[in-house]
Design a protein that fits this description.
With 185 residues, the chain is an alpha+beta fold. Helix content is 51%, strand content 13%. Helix 2 packs across helix 6 and helix 6 runs antiparallel to helix 8. The protein binds zinc ion (ZN).
Length: 185
């Protein structure tokens, strides 16, 4: 199949809803923030409005480190927070929520970025042609090959176009797989 066909197919792919599982949460958090943030997300899952001091205390993570992870999760829209004034102490405390409803959107975002990279790579493979000496002394791009009259600058052997069909096929296959499966990311 020609790649344009697959790209066209890719763009018209349907989004299927899916259930957010612990495994999906794990993959999204690991991809966007890192494995070290997982305990916080698991801890907040199913809870609401949790003080950052409780997060730090229950998970036995130092408060500065806890805050750092919380803000990194916030940046990626995995968590959100609300501030509330502590009546006794007079200062504000952040209370955190896990945006579980946002996970499918994040999965989609990660997939789109990865697909975009694959498509760019495929386009590059399709746009450029390389030539190689059968004696393996040189590998030239299209322009250099024309300049040397399609002969090897080292041994003067006639250059052969390099076959990148397997690379292209691999990329096309990967793109098609990702488009078919809403959980491939
Ligand atoms: Zn040569």
């Amino acid at each position: 199949m020609h790649s344009e066909t697959i790209l066209k197919y890719a763009d018209s792919s349907k989004k299927k809803p899916f259930k957010v599982t612990k495994d999906i949460i794990k993959r999204v958090v690991t991809e966007l923030v890192g494995e070290e943030a997982l305990p916080i997300v698991y801890f907040l899952r199913g809870k609401t409005f949790v003080s950052e001091f409780i997060v730090a205390e229950d998970l036995n993570i130092e408060i500065h480190k806890t805050r750092n992870l919380l803000y990194r999760l916030l940046e990626k829209d995995i968590l959100s927070f609300r501030r509330k004034k502590d009546k006794k102490k007079g200062w504000y405390i952040c209370y955190w929520d896990f945006n579980e409803h946002n996970i499918p959107h994040l999965v989609d975002k990660i997939r789109k970025e990865k697909l975009e990279k694959l498509k760019t790579r495929l386009a590059r493979e399709e746009a450029s042609q390389f030539f190689m000496c059968p004696n393996a002394c040189s590998r030239l791009d299209f322009e250099s090959a024309i300049e040397s009259g399609y002969h090897c600058p080292e041994c003067n052997e006639l250059l052969r176009p390099m076959d990148n069909n397997r690379t292209k096929e691999f990329l096309m296959q990967r793109i098609a797989e990702m488009e078919e499966n809403p959980l491939a990311f």
